Amino acid sequence: MTQLPRTRAAEICRGIAALLLVIVLLVGVPIGLYAVGGSPLPHQIPSWAQITATLMGPDSDQQVFLAAIGLLGWIAWVQFAIAVGTETVCYLAGRPARSLPRPARPLQLLARNLITTATLAFSATATLTTTSASAHTIATAPSAPHEPSPAQDTATKGTADGDGWEPFLGDGTAQHTESREPTWTTRIIHRGDNLWTLARRAYGSGTYYSKIFKASQRLDQPAGVPDLTDPNHLHPGQRVRLPQIRHRSAPSSDSAAIPPAKGPRPSAPVKAPGDDVPARPRPAPKEAASRQVPNPIVAPPRAPSPPAQTPHRTDDQQPSSSITLPSGSTFGLGLAAALSIAVAATRLHRRRRHHPADTVQDTAPAEPPPPPVAKARKAYLDRAFADHDAPVPSDAELLTSDHTTPAPEHTTLGTRNDSPIRLPLAGLSLGLHGDGAHATARAITIELLGKASRDRAQLLLPQPDFDLLFPGSDLTSAASTPPGLTITPTVAAAVAELETELLRRARLLEITDQPDLAALRAADPAEPLPTLLLVASIPEHAAAVNTIAQLGHRHGIGALILNPWSHGTSLHLTEHATVTHAEGPHADTLTGAHLFHLTSDDARAMLAILRSATGTPPSETEDAPPSPRPAQDHAPVPAPRPAPELPTPPRPSGNDQPRPIRLQLLGPVQLHTTNGPITTGLRRSARDLLAYLALHPNGITRAQAISHLWPDHPPAKATSAFNTAVANIRKTLRTATGLREPMFLIHTTGLYRLDAVLIDVDLWHLTTTLSNASRATNAPDRIAALTPAPDLYTGHFASDLTHEWAETHREHLRRRTIDALADLADLLQHDHPERALITLEYAITHDPYGENLYRTIMKLQTHLGHPDAAQRTYQLLASRLTDLDAEPDDQTHQLLTDLQRSPNP
Fold first, then answer.
1. CA distance readout (Å), 535 to 156, 293, 440, 459, 557
2. Could you give the CA distance from residue 572 to residue 580 in angstroms, rounded to a whole number?
3. For residue 825, what are the domain limits?
4. What does the alpha-carbon distance between residue 470 and residue 472 come to, in Å, rounded to a whole number?
5. Of 202, 265, 415, 698, which shows the fewest CB atoms inside 10 Å?
């Protein structure tokens, strides 16, 4: 704690130095110039003859030279004084200053850096206090009906209404509370915008478009963007000002309460060059005036789509936006999606490191995800894909989709009346206190960390606050820290790093001449500019953090405070994260809301999977203790360690006789008859039961099936669901085959099993082949046993099932098969290298990240006299590893170098 005063003293000294330098340059320089060269203004205007004689004559006494130097000094001082005045006014107004001409640009940059340094260090002084008080007064002023408050407009930049909202406090006259000049926000014009729709979204009526036009005519535009001169012609990148409109009386529901504005037609949607965008139809004034603007922080309910356009069933209700675990944790689908991607990345990294010849790994396969993570992943895959009969993405597809995810601009705090509540991260100034504050902070932190890869987000947490939020998580090294998380020793160090990053981003915006961080990201995608969030308890640094949060709208910086917060929005939370009291700009929206929250055990398990998603070796990622499983949670299917061979089902008496039903489990689950696939009649629960029964040819009990297929159902409903699934299987198969007598699912001695006489399963053929190979005692018999394996493994096990037992067996079967193919290639490489190469090439189609397989292929290709093919194989591996943000390891690179030096080893 002794470091805090020293850090604050350093900040104050830095601010004093900047302020003294500004005073010296503004006051000392002109005094010095006057003392040396006198007044820059002549006592009398010289004649043309005097000017000519002075310039053409010899300057023996250096008077002309000294006068020229003095004049240049006065010109530079005037430019610096103008830059200081401009930057000060624009800083207090909360908007960027227009760039001065190139000769004066260095002086403007100097003035901007000095002013920013001084104001950040003295954020509690009168100037900034006046600005903050003015903004707070404006934010808490009551707004007229049909009129969103400026504070809400400012805080909801880029929410459900779209991106591009930017806060403005107005000019100097608008900052005084007693002034009648209106405040405003600004909107950056995008393609497709027009003034009518902007007015309708801001005020509830498009007839106010003329007021937006009048308020925006003299607004400074970014460099290269034309001024707004015609309401019918907008250009992408222009800024328009949305003034605060006050009515003398509350408007009635009748359209006569808002008279139609006179003037030109509203502008057509903005078109990019070459686009042919149809004009947006103008709504009737009465209809537009009678609509109220929904609060943009709470997303409005989705409008029902026409049946012809919706890809899902029209009778399905929208899935809930929150997920609740048995432990009591509640979070959104955004966090569940991030965890699903982390699980996929973890598995792919493990596949990359797997060595088929490593018997230790074969006998100890990777553990499944922790229970909270597994439940979150299943909920996401079900609600986003399986429940809508959409293909469930593979691990590689999930990771590929993450590449196109933009930097997070909002955080979803929770729900209110079943609608998600979202706040922009840029400029976030939110304080949490009460029994549920830490649980909610964990949910926000984990969700942002899940989206932090590829420099999309970064969190600053002081070590004491990290220990408070995540007790028991020991991140002792940088390698064990998830991407996007920076842990500082103290609060003061975190605030200092935040200030440094704010100055750096301000300079980047000035150098690149971009209006905000989003534009800078688009102009230079290679520059790492993550959304930055401070999560800390900061009673000692409230003024500095408040100033940074105010400037964060433009620079992508926000603050989540773990204590009451009078400078922004402050929420009091109950134990179950319900907002009972709120103060600040978003108080009305957040009061009564149910915020997302995580227990410390669930958060620690999620943090561990985010760490392992980077490819950190298991020895470094499994140091945290596993989270205890809730008492009410059912035990999962034990991961095979090693898994016993599946019993071979009884064969029919005539081996050549085809069975009437074929169950396909390698790939999507599908039933086939001799006439083709069965496409109708089979329930999804019945399909899941068929896959589970195929994994247990000897039979299962009803309790087993219920515990793994319907773990969250009450006992009575789970039993009914099981009976319904069995009945649906029998009815569907009897209808498809025309056979009325068979049961298809045999029930004897309390066990249910598939009738192997009538149902053929592709999985059984593959497991029989693998079992026969494991029992072979010599190389020829093993080769003969493994030869059918490439043709039998046509896809991953039950790729459309999301149950944990299905994913566990899917990964185990994939590893066993890939190892068998590698073993077959090893047995063939001496006598039949071409066959071995074909086998390995087939293996990497099912395991595209197994680096050891690529090394073996490269050796075989070089042995066959194709070193160029080995080079292409290496390039293919490097291309595929970009999905994991990885490169071939040193061993693979060294192998390529050795093979190129000696083409025929």
1. 20, 33, 12, 7, 11
2. 6
3. 771-901
4. 6
5. 698
Cα distance from N-terminal residue to C-terminal residue, the chain: 64
Sheet holding 239-243, edge to edge: 165-168, 184-188, 239-243
C-beta of residue 517 within 8 angstroms of C-beta of residue 505: yes
Q: Alpha helix locations (H) across 404-480? A: 437-450, 463-469
Q: At what angle do helices 833-846 and 851-863 cross, to 10 degrees?
A: 150
Secondary structure (DSSP) of 34-55: HHHH--SS-SSPPPHHHHHHHH
Average per-residue pLDDT for the chain: 77
Q: Tokens 């940088």 map to which residue? A: 478
Annotate 147-169 with DSSP letters as a single string.
---HHHHHHTTTSTT-S-EEEE-
Report the distance separating Cα 109 and Cα 252, nearest Å.
52
CATH number at residue 710: 1.10.10.10
Query: Residue 244 gets which letter from DSSP?
Result: -
Domain CATH number, residue 444: 3.40.50.300
Task: Walk across the sheet containing 759-761 and list its strands.
Answer: 676-677, 670-673, 661-664, 759-761
Q: Is residue 333 part of a domain?
A: no
Sheet holding 429-434, edge to edge: 485-488, 457-462, 531-536, 557-561, 429-434, 569-573, 579-583
Quickly list DSSP for 605-632: HHHHHHHHTTT--HHHHS-SPPPPPPTT
Q: How far is CA 764 from CA 647, 691, 773, in A?
A: 9, 12, 14
pLDDT at 608 over 80: yes
Task: Show the tokens assigned to 887.
Answer: 């490169």
Q: Does residue 655 lie within any of the structural domains?
A: no
Write down the pTM of the prediction: 0.66
b/e map of 209-223 (b: 16 or more CB within 10 Å)? bbbbbebbeebebbe
User: DSSP string of 546-580?
Assistant: HHHHHHHHHHTEEEEESS--TTSEEEEE-TT-BEE
Give counts: helices (H), strands (E), the chain: 33, 21
Instruction: Let me know if 376 is exposed, middle or buried by CB neighbors in 10 A (0-12, 13-18, 19+).
Output: buried
Give the residue, 153 or 123, on which the prediction is more confident.
Answer: 123
Is the separation of the CB atoms in 828 and 786 below 8 Å?
no
Q: Identify whether the C-beta of residue 222 lies closer than 8 Å to the C-beta of residue 234.
A: no
The lowest-confidence range among 63-72, 155-164, 366-375, 441-450 is 155-164
Question: Rounded to whole angstroms, how far apart are CA atoms 486 and 494?
Answer: 9
> Any idea what the Cα angle at residue 108 is, between residues 103 and 109, rounded to 5°?
110
331, pLDDT greater than 50: yes
Q: Can you say how many angstroms the Cα of residue 221 is from the centroid of all Cα atoms in its chain?
A: 31
- Helix or strand run (H / E) with residue 519: helix 517-523
Nearest to 464 by CA among 546, 538, 531, 543: 538
User: What does the alpha-carbon distance between residue 402 and residue 624 come to, in Å, rounded to a whole number?
Assistant: 26
- The H or E element that residue 133 is part of is helix 126-140
Q: Are 76 and 107 in contact (CB under 8 A)?
A: yes
How does pLDDT run across 432-483, given as a tens digit for each residue?
A: 999 999 999 999 999 999 999 888 999 999 999 999 999 887 765 555 688 8
Confidence of residue 850 (pLDDT cuts 50, 70, 90): very high
The number of domains in the chain is 5
> Is 748 within 8 Å of 709 (Cβ atoms)?
no
Do 752 and 797 fall within a single domain? Answer: no
Contact assessment for residue 314 and residue 307, using Cβ atoms and an 8 Å cutoff:
yes
What pLDDT was estimated at residue 44?
Answer: 66
pLDDT the model gives residue 308 = 35
Residues 153 and 70 placed together within one structural domain of the fold: no
Band (181; pLDDT cuts 50, 70, 90): very low
Amino acid at 732: T
Distance between CA atoms of residues 94 and 102, nearest Å: 24
Same domain, 221 and 178: yes
β partners of residue 329: none
